[in-house]
Amino acid sequence: MEALGAADELNAALGMARTSGLGKDAETAIDGIQRRLVHLMGQLACRPGDAEHYVDAGFAGLGTDDVEWLEGLAKRLEAGGANPGVWARPGAEGRMAAAALDFARAIARRAERRTWTVHCED
Question: pTM of the predicted model, to two decimals?
């Protein structure tokens, strides 16, 4: 439940960032991340014994192609200068959109830790 809740918080924070005036390309990227987060939340909500039923019911899960999409997105963003070096001081750029992304990044780290805990328990 902790991992599911953290992923849900991340999805909500990304929604705030998405509507903060980042521009169409960023909104499209965030939409792709949010769609994948919904799949992750579905997987996290399943008990291990119910995973097969979840897939058989037609619900999407995360796969290698999703990881590759996210890694490709990160590489494109970094190549375009998306890592300005001020991430440690949210709000330093003076733009609400950048601060919203910093907030989402911090929540993503919590979701990552909580999900890693679930993974290690299996």
Answer: 0.79
Are 71 and 30 within 8 A, CB to CB?
Answer: no
Sign of CA dihedral 41, 116, 73, 24: positive
What is the spatial distance between Cα 94 and Cα 103, in angstroms, rounded to a whole number?
14
Inter-residue contact 59 to 40 (CB < 8 Å) = no
**Chain mean pLDDT for the chain:** 84
Task: Please state the domain extents for the chain.
Answer: 2-121
- CATH of segment(s) 2-121: 1.20.1200
Residue 32 has pLDDT above 90, yes or no: yes
Q: What letters, b where the CB count within 10 A reaches 16 and e where it falls short, cover 91-118?
A: eeeeeebbbbbbbbeebbebbeebbeee
Higher pLDDT, 95 or 89: 95
Q: Rg of the chain over CA atoms, in angstroms? A: 15
Tokens for 35, please give them: 């769609």
